[in-house]
Design goal:
2 copies of one chain form a homodimer. By secondary structure, chain A is of the alpha/beta class. Chain A folds into 2 domains: 135 residues, Response regulator (Rossmann fold, 3-Layer(aba) Sandwich); 56 residues, Arc Repressor Mutant, subunit A, CATH 1.10.10.10. Chain A has 10 helices and 6 strands, in the order E-H-E-H-E-H-E-H-E-H-E-H-H-H-H-H. In chain A, helix 3 packs parallel to helix 4 and helix 7 packs across helix 9. Chains A and B meet through helix 1 and helix 10 of A and helix 1 and helix 10 of B. Chain A binds a DNA duplex (30 and 30 nucleotides) through helix 7 and helix 9.
Chain lengths: 207, 207
DNA sequence: CGCTCTCTCTATCTTAAGAGGGAGCGAGGC
DNA sequence: GCCTCGCTCCCTCTTAAGATAGAGAGAGCG
């Protein structure tokens, strides 16, 4: 038999870490070698242990999942990272996958799916949950927002007026309106409030 | 030594249930007797096992935490329920506590806090996390919304216009405006979009 | 019975939002 | 060089939103 698959866990909830650790360590072919509670720790522990797989929560204190994926793959292009998150609408997921994360998993997945996802990723095979695969296809058809539009959207979501947005971004109110209009068109919304609702549903913003 | 504290877990994430179960069963003085994956199951398993403590996630499929608390306490007024949730801003928490839940806990709490909370609740002592206690005091000072206002707020959050809201609630646009104005005043917001942001932060609505 | 609260409706007025245009300019790709 | 895209700015016009103020009906309460 080969050596065990070495796993590093990163999640800010001790309960989730315990759950994952219990599941993994019960298996004969894998073991948890370290647990991180935030993004910085996750990177540090990857460096230290060089695991076969890193299971990573998207939302964490200090440094979110996206930037952890970015950093780790920058240092170790061959790293096998399995993303784990609560919401299947998050835009972040696609950012991670396109940056090179090997797999993606919902937190409400059953034990068997979680374990088989870890095994798949450890063998460098991509694992994509079926619900996400479907969402990914849907997303392709939809227009994406530019960085500036995302900046404006964030402020809109905070309830700022066009005038206020203009002041904060050092542009004119007219330009702010132009961006807002583009956002409304791309998100297919009639009002800014609806745009916020749509954006939140798609995981473009986190309130 | 007394008999062990009998615990029923209710959470829709298998990972979290595993984690809690592992933590609890490691203790000499407590044990998990059943696990539920949704609200209905939680109620059924309470009936079946009559545990000393039920640990309950607020957000679950089929029936949410609030209504589970309501139903269980209706059948068993002495039930000891410990609420567990991810977000500390949720309005629901206060509803649960005022309905008679014995304790409240954040999911990112460390092991020791979780275990001591279960012990406290099992002895019929209330357990209140310090962050929540503070929030509760803050909340007292703030004006509460009427049911009608919450109805309107929900529609506002979905991006509906005043006219649309009026149609859906079978009232005039003027009345819808009156409600929206009241909402803005109570939430201390300038625009409806800001009101949605504030309401979401306070857990008055779930997008 | 008054008092308060909620919900309903009315009216007027000001301002912000959104629709529909056009246009310049720099960066990057073909 | 040409073209596209992102960002910026400008114009007009219509409508929705919000501020302000008043008022009546019904429920619940001391």
């Amino acid at each position: 038999m080969k050596t065990k698959v070495r796993v590093v866990l990163a999640d800010d909830h001790p309960v989730v870490r315990d759950g994952l650790a219990a599941m993994v360590n019960q298996q004969a072919d894998m073991e948890v070698v370290a647990e991180a509670g935030d993004g910085d720790e996750a990177i540090a522990l990857y460096e230290q242990h060089r695991p076969d797989v890193m299971v990573l929560d998207l939302r964490m204190p200090k440094r979110d999942g996206v930037s952890v994926v970015q950093r780790v793959l920058e240092l170790h292009p061959k790293a096998c990272i399995l993303i784990m998150t609560t919401y299947d609408g998050d835009e972040d997921i696609f950012q991670c996958l396109s940056q090179g994360a090997k797999g993606y998993l919902l937190k409400d997945a059953p034990r068997q799916e979680i374990l088989s996802a870890i095994r798949a990723v450890s063998e460098d095979r991509p694992y994509t949950s079926s619900t996400v695969a479907a969402k990914a296809l849907q997303r392709m058809a939809k227009p994406s927002l530019t960085q500036r539009e995302l900046d404006v959207l964030q402020l809109v979501a905070e309830g700022r007026s066009n005038k206020d947005i203009a002041r904060r971004l050092s542009i004119t109110e007219g330009t702010a309106k132009t961006h807002v209009k583009a956002i409304l068109t791309k998100l297919d919304a009639i009002s800014r409030t609806e745009a916020v609702a749509v954006a939140h549903k798609r995981g473009l913003i986190h309130l």
